[in-house]
Amino acid sequence: MTYRILVTSLSFGREDATPVRMLEDAGCEVIRNPAGRPLSDEELAGLVGEVDGIIAGVDWIGPRTLSRGVPRLRIVSRTGVGYDRVDVETATRLGVAVTITPGANSEAVADLAMGLLIAVARQIPEADRTLRDGRWHRYTGRELWRKRLGLVGLGRIGKGVARRAAGGFAMEVLAYDVVWDEPFCRQWGVMRAGSLDEIFETCDFISLHVPETAQTRHLVNEERLRRMKRTAYLVNTARGGLVDEAALARALQEGWIAGAALDVFEKEPPASSPLLGLPNVVVTPHIGAHTVEAVGEMSRMAARNLLALLVEGRVPEGLVNPEALRSGS
Predict the structure, then answer these.
(1) Residue 322 CA: distances (Å) to CA of 34, 95, 161
(2) 106-283 shares the fold of 3-104+292-327
């Protein structure tokens, strides 16, 4: 049997042809994203009528796509750990499995989070720009060494940042998470925050590592930004919606905090964001997972998840909605 697979992820197989070969060797016909950019729900709906699976990136997969895809569509295999752009409730009701690739990009994102911490504290991008413009201006930054780092979220990526911060910079790490890994925290000296307020009030650096949900949207709002030290820095490599960008822009312009570094935005690309024009902000275009190693592993894992369900008839790893396998047609 030939399975038709729509690959909308722009990074799938980019660094290594192995994932594409995995699909083709299993008898799959691979259909590439025709637009060369992330697709909207409406755009995807026009492409899924005759496909068995989607390997998706940051496309919006909503009710239109899912309703148009069934009964043939059986799986949406995401390259990444987030699934906030997939309507999981509708997918489950229609019997469409949704999978992610947990752990594949954790070290890459943790690396970037630490890089952004250093870049914003030492004003590296601004120093680079001024020197290239012919100016010899020596910036006075702040050290990470032995400072207090607050982690909002202590999953795989948060733990990666904690290891780097505690082990490499002797930082005092304070973390907040509803799920607490006591053995890990004892090993790395991570302290448990009693509340989010404790993180925002006491830390010199704060790094976000939680998913975007109805409960976490605008978790960083005006109230919490005002609680931060005037010398503190905020880093977000998780999801743009965690931060109220209008409030953050005010905080940076008016000196409530010292700086921010962002890899993610409420709207991507953030063409009209006031944050882009501020000198105390470091920005990157959602590249946290984009290393050769991470892109390769995410692609391979996404392919394995899809083939497990369609070809091998077994439950794939990283399955978000096991109920879909019981309710599907």
Answers:
(1) 31, 9, 30
(2) yes
Catalytic residue among 64, 85, 93, 239: 239
268 is known as an active-site residue: yes
List the pLDDT tens digit at each of the 329 positions of the chain.
Answer: 799 999 999 999 888 899 999 999 999 999 999 999 999 999 999 999 999 999 999 899 999 999 999 999 999 999 988 898 999 999 999 999 999 999 999 999 999 999 999 999 999 999 999 999 999 999 999 999 999 999 999 999 999 999 999 999 999 999 999 999 999 999 999 999 999 999 999 999 999 999 999 999 999 999 999 999 999 999 999 999 999 999 999 999 999 999 999 999 999 899 889 999 999 999 999 999 999 999 999 999 999 999 999 999 999 999 999 999 986 54
Q: Catalytic residue at 239?
A: yes
- The one catalytic residue in 89, 268, 293, 312 is 268
Query: For the domain bounded by 3-104+292-327, which CATH number is listed?
Result: 3.40.50.720
Q: What is the rounded CA–CA span in Å between residue 280 and residue 274?
A: 12
CA dihedral 305, 307, 313, 317 (to 10 degrees): -10
Q: Which amino acid is at 86?
A: V
Q: Per-domain residue ranges for the chain?
A: 3-104+292-327, 106-283
Whether 218 is catalytic is no
Q: Kindly report the pTM of this predicted structure.
A: 0.89
Q: Which of 85, 93, 148, 286 is catalytic?
A: 286
CATH number of 106-283: 3.40.50.720
